[in-house]
Design brief:
The structure holds two protein chains of two kinds. By secondary structure, chain A is mainly alpha-helical. Helix content of chain A is 76%, strand content 0%. Chain A has helices at 4-23, 32-50, 53-56, 63-78, 83-98. The longest helix of chain A is centred in the first third of the chain and has 20 residues, at 4-23. By secondary structure, chain B is mostly helical. Chain B has helices at 7-34, 39-49, 52-63, 68-78, 81-91, 102-107, 111-119, 126-150, 156-162, 164-181, 183-202, 207-225. In chain B, helix 1 crosses helix 2 and helix 10 packs antiparallel against helix 11 (183-202). Classes of the chains: A mainly alpha, B mainly alpha. At the A-B interface, helix 1, helix 2, helix 3, helix 4 and helix 5 of A face helix 1, helix 2, helix 3, helix 4 and helix 5 of B.
Chain lengths: 99, 232
């Protein structure tokens, strides 16, 4: 299968959710439990986006990725901004892999 | 009287987003190269999706051989937050914005674009949004292409290390959520991450479904246990 198909499927899914609020007014009248759930969904998505990938991507050095995200998290806790935590995590993981 | 937001102002506000997107997209370009995609596939990805976490998720699902239905539902769910951002943003649009311009504005709404545009507190004109979204879009697409190209010259160990960018990015987002909303946010993410690890590595559930099941379970458990007053 050409990689174009999953790429365009992914695009379609993204475009649908972006256009929906401009054309579907029923979204403003969701039951409270569903509305609350939808607000939590992005947080719940973060867990499986990080685990187990950050471990299994580094076979033989399972802690290399963990060290990287630990550093990122520490710096993000203290200050806003993404660039520095992300760059530091690359350096940390690089060092962990090179040791 | 409120000033009218111009294209130039949009470009100016978009520059920090450009700077933030570029390295992230660079990592995405590297991921695509690792997956064995061609340069134009990687670029097509960013041109047609323009969504950080959605693209990383789609790419990792492609790498694990997920079904198209798994991919579609997972990407739809992870991008569901755009429904709320769009609803909010559409209320602040200049009424003079034409019908044909709206789908373009909707397509360019990312988390960062949304935050910058809405925090502006003024009526959003089409030229402002095109400036803001266009600058961000260039950072994203340009970063993807650059990442794919420098993948040729980066030493393989460094390439492997750059792969952590994706996880670092999500970790930063999670840290911000925990800082704003308390330890409950961490508990929800830990539940979904733990479930996904268990289902996909121990119980051999296909990755796409495992992702959806874990995300929805943690969402509903969280929604049932957390009361609205907690601010979550």
């Amino acid at each position: 299968m050409s990689p174009m198909i999953p790429i365009l499927i992914s695009s379609l899914a993204t475009i649908i959710v972006r256009l929906l609020p401009y054309y579907a007014t029923w979204l403003e009248r969701l039951p409270p439990f569903l509305a609350k759930s939808l607000r939590l969904l992005p947080i719940a998505a973060l867990g499986p986006l990080i685990f187990p990938g950050v471990i299994i991507d580094y076979p033989g050095r399972w802690w290399a990725g963990l060290a990287g995200i630990a550093v990122a998290s520490l710096f993000a806790w203290r200050k806003n901004g993404m660039v520095i935590p992300v760059l530091l995590s690359i350096v940390t993981t690089w060092a962990a892999l090179a040791l | 009287m409120a000033r009218t937001l111009t294209f130039k102002q949009g470009f100016h506000d978009g520059l920090p987003i450009f700077i933030g997107y570029f390295p992230t997209a660079l990592a995405f370009g590297l991921v695509c190269r690792d997956l064995g995609l061609r340069a134009w596939h990687a670029i097509l990805f960013s041109v047609t999706n323009f969504a950080g976490s959605g693209q990383f998720l789609a790419a990792s699902l492609m790498g694990s051989g997920a079904l198209l239905a798994e991919l579609f539902i997972s990407v739809l769910l992870i991008n569901m937050r755009y429904v709320f951002m769009g609803a909010e943003l559409s209320r602040k649009l200049d009424p003079a914005i034409r019908g044909w311009q709206r789908p373009f504005i909707a397509f360019g709404t990312t988390d960062e674009v949304f935050s910058v545009a809405v925090l502006n507190g003024e009526m959003l004109t089409a030229s402002y949004l095109f400036g803001l979204e266009g600058t961000s879009y260039l950072g994203w697409v340009g970063g993807t292409a650059t990442g794919f190209l420098i993948g040729m010259i980066l030493p393989s160990l460094l390439q492997l290390a750059v792969g952590v960018t994706l996880y670092a990015l999500f970790t930063v987002l999670l840290t911000q959520q925990v800082r704003q909303k308390g330890v409950k946010a961490l508990a929800i993410a830990a539940l979904s991450g733990g479930l996904h690890t268990l289902l996909s590595t121990r119980l051999a559930v296909p990755v796409g479904w495992s992702f959806v099941i874990s995300m929805l379970t943690a969402t509903f458990v969280g929604a049932a246990l957390i009361d609205e007053e907690a601010g979550l």
